[in-house]
Design a protein that fits this description.
single chain; alpha/beta; 4-stranded mixed β-sheet; 11 helices; 13 strands; globular
Length: 305
Amino acid sequence: MTGKSILSIGEAMVELSPSGQGGLWRLGIAGDTLNTAWYLRRLLPADWRVAYCSRVGLGEFSQQMVDFLAAEGIDATHVGRDPGREIAVYAISLKDGERSFSYWRDTSAAKGLADDPAALASALAGVGIAYFSGITLGILPPAGRATLIGTLATARAAGTQVVFDPNLRPRLWPDAAAMCREIEAAAAVADLVLPSFDDERSFFGDAHPQATVARYLARGAGQVVVKAGGDAIRYGGREGAGLVEGLPREVPVDTTAAGDSFNAGYLAARLDGADIPAAIRRAHDLSRRVIRHRGALVPEAVAQG
Protein backbone atom coordinates (compact mmCIF):
# COMPACT_ATOMS: atom_id res chain seq x y z
CA MET A 1 0.00 0.00 0.00
CA THR A 2 1.17 3.57 -0.66
CA GLY A 3 0.68 6.66 1.53
CA LYS A 4 -1.56 7.38 4.51
CA SER A 5 -4.50 8.57 2.47
CA ILE A 6 -8.00 7.38 1.65
CA LEU A 7 -10.00 8.54 -1.36
CA SER A 8 -13.73 7.83 -1.27
CA ILE A 9 -15.40 8.05 -4.68
CA GLY A 10 -19.09 8.60 -5.25
CA GLU A 11 -22.14 10.81 -5.00
CA ALA A 12 -22.90 13.12 -2.08
CA MET A 13 -26.42 14.51 -1.83
CA VAL A 14 -28.52 16.92 0.15
CA GLU A 15 -30.27 14.75 2.75
CA LEU A 16 -33.71 15.56 4.14
CA SER A 17 -34.41 13.47 7.24
CA PRO A 18 -37.22 13.52 9.82
CA SER A 19 -36.30 15.73 12.76
CA GLY A 20 -38.61 13.94 15.18
CA GLN A 21 -40.46 17.23 15.76
CA GLY A 22 -43.79 17.08 14.00
CA GLY A 23 -43.54 17.76 10.29
CA LEU A 24 -40.12 19.43 10.44
CA TRP A 25 -37.25 18.11 8.34
CA ARG A 26 -33.52 18.31 8.95
CA LEU A 27 -31.18 19.22 6.09
CA GLY A 28 -27.79 17.57 5.87
CA ILE A 29 -25.19 16.30 3.40
CA ALA A 30 -24.82 12.54 3.00
CA GLY A 31 -24.48 9.64 0.57
CA ASP A 32 -23.07 6.16 1.05
CA THR A 33 -19.43 6.82 0.16
CA LEU A 34 -19.45 10.21 1.86
CA ASN A 35 -20.87 8.64 5.01
CA THR A 36 -17.99 6.18 5.09
CA ALA A 37 -15.48 8.98 4.54
CA TRP A 38 -17.04 10.99 7.38
CA TYR A 39 -16.80 8.07 9.81
CA LEU A 40 -13.24 7.33 8.71
CA ARG A 41 -12.27 10.92 9.45
CA ARG A 42 -13.74 10.54 12.96
CA LEU A 43 -11.89 7.26 13.58
CA LEU A 44 -8.47 7.67 11.98
CA PRO A 45 -5.48 9.57 13.40
CA ALA A 46 -4.93 13.12 12.17
CA ASP A 47 -1.98 12.10 10.01
CA TRP A 48 -4.33 10.18 7.71
CA ARG A 49 -5.73 12.21 4.83
CA VAL A 50 -9.37 11.43 4.02
CA ALA A 51 -10.50 12.84 0.67
CA TYR A 52 -13.63 12.75 -1.44
CA CYS A 53 -13.89 12.48 -5.21
CA SER A 54 -17.14 13.57 -6.81
CA ARG A 55 -18.72 16.32 -8.88
CA VAL A 56 -21.20 19.04 -7.93
CA GLY A 57 -22.72 22.12 -9.54
CA LEU A 58 -22.26 25.83 -8.99
CA GLY A 59 -25.35 26.50 -6.90
CA GLU A 60 -25.85 27.15 -3.20
CA PHE A 61 -26.51 23.55 -2.16
CA SER A 62 -23.44 22.36 -4.09
CA GLN A 63 -21.34 24.94 -2.29
CA GLN A 64 -22.80 23.78 1.01
CA MET A 65 -21.51 20.30 0.26
CA VAL A 66 -17.99 21.58 -0.44
CA ASP A 67 -18.11 23.72 2.71
CA PHE A 68 -19.35 20.73 4.70
CA LEU A 69 -16.39 18.62 3.60
CA ALA A 70 -13.96 21.35 4.61
CA ALA A 71 -15.63 21.79 8.00
CA GLU A 72 -15.51 18.04 8.65
CA GLY A 73 -11.84 17.65 7.77
CA ILE A 74 -12.42 15.87 4.45
CA ASP A 75 -10.25 17.02 1.53
CA ALA A 76 -12.43 18.31 -1.33
CA THR A 77 -9.59 18.87 -3.81
CA HIS A 78 -11.05 16.26 -6.17
CA VAL A 79 -14.65 17.47 -6.10
CA GLY A 80 -15.14 18.91 -9.57
CA ARG A 81 -17.68 21.53 -10.70
CA ASP A 82 -20.30 21.12 -13.42
CA PRO A 83 -21.95 24.33 -14.71
CA GLY A 84 -24.88 22.41 -16.20
CA ARG A 85 -25.89 20.08 -13.34
CA GLU A 86 -26.46 20.26 -9.59
CA ILE A 87 -26.10 18.20 -6.45
CA ALA A 88 -28.81 15.56 -5.98
CA VAL A 89 -31.39 15.47 -3.17
CA TYR A 90 -32.94 12.58 -1.26
CA ALA A 91 -35.45 12.30 1.59
CA ILE A 92 -35.65 9.58 4.24
CA SER A 93 -38.94 8.12 5.44
CA LEU A 94 -38.93 5.94 8.56
CA LYS A 95 -41.22 3.18 9.78
CA ASP A 96 -40.26 1.08 12.82
CA GLY A 97 -36.62 2.07 12.39
CA GLU A 98 -36.43 0.94 8.77
CA ARG A 99 -35.94 3.58 6.14
CA SER A 100 -37.12 4.16 2.61
CA PHE A 101 -35.91 6.85 0.25
CA SER A 102 -37.21 9.30 -2.30
CA TYR A 103 -34.60 10.63 -4.74
CA TRP A 104 -34.20 13.61 -7.06
CA ARG A 105 -30.96 12.75 -8.85
CA ASP A 106 -31.64 12.60 -12.62
CA THR A 107 -29.54 15.72 -13.19
CA SER A 108 -26.91 14.93 -10.54
CA ALA A 109 -23.52 16.43 -11.36
CA ALA A 110 -21.88 13.33 -9.82
CA LYS A 111 -22.90 11.35 -12.90
CA GLY A 112 -19.91 13.01 -14.57
CA LEU A 113 -17.29 12.22 -11.94
CA ALA A 114 -15.44 9.89 -14.35
CA ASP A 115 -15.83 12.05 -17.47
CA ASP A 116 -12.22 13.26 -17.23
CA PRO A 117 -9.94 10.18 -17.09
CA ALA A 118 -6.83 12.27 -16.46
CA ALA A 119 -8.42 14.02 -13.48
CA LEU A 120 -9.56 10.70 -12.05
CA ALA A 121 -6.11 9.19 -12.45
CA SER A 122 -4.60 12.24 -10.77
CA ALA A 123 -7.00 11.91 -7.84
CA LEU A 124 -5.96 8.27 -7.34
CA ALA A 125 -2.21 8.81 -7.75
CA GLY A 126 -0.36 7.73 -4.61
CA VAL A 127 -3.55 7.01 -2.65
CA GLY A 128 -3.27 4.32 0.02
CA ILE A 129 -6.91 3.19 -0.08
CA ALA A 130 -9.54 3.86 -2.72
CA TYR A 131 -13.13 3.24 -1.66
CA PHE A 132 -16.20 3.06 -3.91
CA SER A 133 -19.57 1.35 -4.09
CA GLY A 134 -22.23 -0.11 -6.32
CA ILE A 135 -24.04 3.22 -6.04
CA THR A 136 -20.96 4.95 -7.43
CA LEU A 137 -21.17 2.60 -10.40
CA GLY A 138 -24.94 2.81 -10.72
CA ILE A 139 -25.08 6.58 -11.21
CA LEU A 140 -22.47 6.53 -13.98
CA PRO A 141 -23.07 6.03 -17.69
CA PRO A 142 -21.45 2.89 -19.18
CA ALA A 143 -18.37 4.78 -20.38
CA GLY A 144 -17.91 6.32 -16.96
CA ARG A 145 -18.13 2.94 -15.26
CA ALA A 146 -15.52 1.50 -17.59
CA THR A 147 -13.23 4.47 -16.95
CA LEU A 148 -13.60 4.19 -13.19
CA ILE A 149 -12.98 0.45 -13.05
CA GLY A 150 -10.01 0.70 -15.40
CA THR A 151 -8.46 3.57 -13.45
CA LEU A 152 -8.93 1.71 -10.17
CA ALA A 153 -7.25 -1.36 -11.66
CA THR A 154 -4.28 0.79 -12.68
CA ALA A 155 -4.09 2.36 -9.22
CA ARG A 156 -4.24 -1.08 -7.61
CA ALA A 157 -1.33 -2.25 -9.73
CA ALA A 158 0.61 0.79 -8.47
CA GLY A 159 -0.01 -0.12 -4.82
CA THR A 160 -3.40 1.36 -3.92
CA GLN A 161 -5.67 -0.92 -1.90
CA VAL A 162 -9.12 -0.95 -3.54
CA VAL A 163 -12.17 -1.43 -1.31
CA PHE A 164 -15.65 -2.01 -2.73
CA ASP A 165 -19.12 -2.18 -1.18
CA PRO A 166 -21.54 -3.66 -3.77
CA ASN A 167 -24.45 -1.73 -2.20
CA LEU A 168 -27.02 -3.14 -4.64
CA ARG A 169 -29.64 -0.55 -5.65
CA PRO A 170 -31.65 -1.85 -8.64
CA ARG A 171 -33.44 1.45 -9.29
CA LEU A 172 -30.11 2.87 -10.52
CA TRP A 173 -29.74 0.22 -13.22
CA PRO A 174 -31.57 -0.65 -16.44
CA ASP A 175 -32.20 -4.15 -15.08
CA ALA A 176 -30.97 -6.56 -12.41
CA ALA A 177 -28.81 -8.54 -14.85
CA ALA A 178 -26.85 -5.42 -15.82
CA MET A 179 -26.40 -4.50 -12.17
CA CYS A 180 -25.09 -7.93 -11.21
CA ARG A 181 -22.74 -8.07 -14.19
CA GLU A 182 -21.18 -4.67 -13.42
CA ILE A 183 -20.95 -5.34 -9.68
CA GLU A 184 -18.94 -8.50 -10.27
CA ALA A 185 -16.69 -6.72 -12.77
CA ALA A 186 -15.93 -4.11 -10.10
CA ALA A 187 -15.27 -6.76 -7.46
CA ALA A 188 -12.61 -8.23 -9.73
CA VAL A 189 -10.40 -5.15 -9.21
CA ALA A 190 -10.96 -5.01 -5.42
CA ASP A 191 -8.64 -6.09 -2.62
CA LEU A 192 -11.58 -6.06 -0.20
CA VAL A 193 -15.31 -6.49 -0.90
CA LEU A 194 -17.87 -5.66 1.81
CA PRO A 195 -21.27 -6.97 0.65
CA SER A 196 -24.53 -7.20 2.61
CA PHE A 197 -25.96 -10.71 2.59
CA ASP A 198 -29.63 -9.71 2.27
CA ASP A 199 -28.83 -7.92 -0.99
CA GLU A 200 -26.64 -10.72 -2.29
CA ARG A 201 -29.27 -13.34 -1.55
CA SER A 202 -31.96 -11.26 -3.27
CA PHE A 203 -30.10 -10.51 -6.49
CA PHE A 204 -27.46 -13.23 -6.85
CA GLY A 205 -29.42 -16.05 -5.23
CA ASP A 206 -26.73 -16.86 -2.66
CA ALA A 207 -28.04 -19.50 -0.25
CA HIS A 208 -25.75 -18.48 2.61
CA PRO A 209 -22.92 -15.99 3.33
CA GLN A 210 -20.24 -18.54 2.47
CA ALA A 211 -21.64 -18.66 -1.06
CA THR A 212 -21.26 -14.87 -1.25
CA VAL A 213 -17.65 -15.13 -0.10
CA ALA A 214 -16.87 -17.88 -2.62
CA ARG A 215 -18.53 -16.08 -5.53
CA TYR A 216 -16.63 -12.83 -5.06
CA LEU A 217 -13.33 -14.63 -4.51
CA ALA A 218 -13.94 -16.54 -7.73
CA ARG A 219 -14.40 -13.21 -9.54
CA GLY A 220 -10.99 -12.01 -8.35
CA ALA A 221 -11.59 -10.20 -5.06
CA GLY A 222 -8.79 -10.51 -2.53
CA GLN A 223 -10.82 -10.64 0.70
CA VAL A 224 -14.57 -10.64 1.42
CA VAL A 225 -16.41 -9.70 4.63
CA VAL A 226 -20.17 -10.29 4.45
CA LYS A 227 -22.33 -7.98 6.56
CA ALA A 228 -25.40 -9.79 7.88
CA GLY A 229 -27.66 -7.29 9.62
CA GLY A 230 -26.60 -8.28 13.12
CA ASP A 231 -26.20 -12.02 12.49
CA ALA A 232 -22.86 -13.83 12.48
CA ILE A 233 -20.41 -12.42 9.94
CA ARG A 234 -18.58 -14.70 7.52
CA TYR A 235 -15.29 -13.71 5.93
CA GLY A 236 -12.76 -15.33 3.63
CA GLY A 237 -9.87 -14.72 1.27
CA ARG A 238 -6.13 -14.43 1.13
CA GLU A 239 -5.93 -12.96 4.67
CA GLY A 240 -7.87 -15.82 6.23
CA ALA A 241 -11.38 -17.20 6.64
CA GLY A 242 -13.77 -17.60 9.53
CA LEU A 243 -17.04 -16.74 11.23
CA VAL A 244 -17.57 -14.06 13.89
CA GLU A 245 -20.50 -15.02 16.12
CA GLY A 246 -22.18 -13.63 19.23
CA LEU A 247 -22.54 -10.09 17.94
CA PRO A 248 -24.93 -8.06 20.14
CA ARG A 249 -28.15 -7.02 18.42
CA GLU A 250 -29.77 -3.59 18.54
CA VAL A 251 -33.33 -2.35 18.05
CA PRO A 252 -32.82 0.39 15.46
CA VAL A 253 -34.11 3.93 15.59
CA ASP A 254 -32.86 4.52 12.03
CA THR A 255 -30.79 2.07 9.98
CA THR A 256 -29.45 4.77 7.64
CA ALA A 257 -25.64 4.40 7.23
CA ALA A 258 -25.52 1.13 9.16
CA GLY A 259 -23.41 -0.50 6.45
CA ASP A 260 -21.47 2.66 5.60
CA SER A 261 -20.36 3.08 9.21
CA PHE A 262 -19.54 -0.64 9.50
CA ASN A 263 -17.22 -0.29 6.51
CA ALA A 264 -15.46 2.68 8.08
CA GLY A 265 -15.16 0.96 11.43
CA TYR A 266 -13.71 -2.15 9.83
CA LEU A 267 -11.14 -0.25 7.77
CA ALA A 268 -10.10 1.96 10.68
CA ALA A 269 -9.66 -1.05 12.95
CA ARG A 270 -7.56 -2.91 10.40
CA LEU A 271 -5.39 0.16 9.88
CA ASP A 272 -4.98 0.28 13.66
CA GLY A 273 -3.56 -3.24 13.59
CA ALA A 274 -6.63 -5.28 14.54
CA ASP A 275 -7.03 -8.74 13.05
CA ILE A 276 -10.12 -9.50 10.97
CA PRO A 277 -12.38 -10.85 13.78
CA ALA A 278 -11.50 -7.94 16.09
CA ALA A 279 -12.06 -5.44 13.29
CA ILE A 280 -15.47 -6.97 12.56
CA ARG A 281 -16.46 -6.62 16.22
CA ARG A 282 -15.33 -2.99 16.34
CA ALA A 283 -17.18 -2.25 13.12
CA HIS A 284 -20.32 -3.91 14.44
CA ASP A 285 -20.16 -1.87 17.64
CA LEU A 286 -19.93 1.36 15.64
CA SER A 287 -22.85 0.35 13.45
CA ARG A 288 -24.94 -0.42 16.56
CA ARG A 289 -24.27 3.08 17.91
CA VAL A 290 -25.16 4.66 14.59
CA ILE A 291 -28.55 2.98 14.24
CA ARG A 292 -29.61 4.32 17.65
CA HIS A 293 -29.73 7.81 16.12
CA ARG A 294 -31.62 9.48 13.30
CA GLY A 295 -29.90 10.35 10.04
CA ALA A 296 -26.74 9.12 8.38
CA LEU A 297 -24.21 11.01 10.50
CA VAL A 298 -24.43 10.79 14.27
CA PRO A 299 -22.91 13.14 16.88
CA GLU A 300 -19.13 12.96 16.82
CA ALA A 301 -18.88 11.63 20.38
CA VAL A 302 -21.17 8.72 19.41
CA ALA A 303 -19.08 7.93 16.32
CA GLN A 304 -15.89 7.85 18.34
CA GLY A 305 -17.43 5.70 21.05
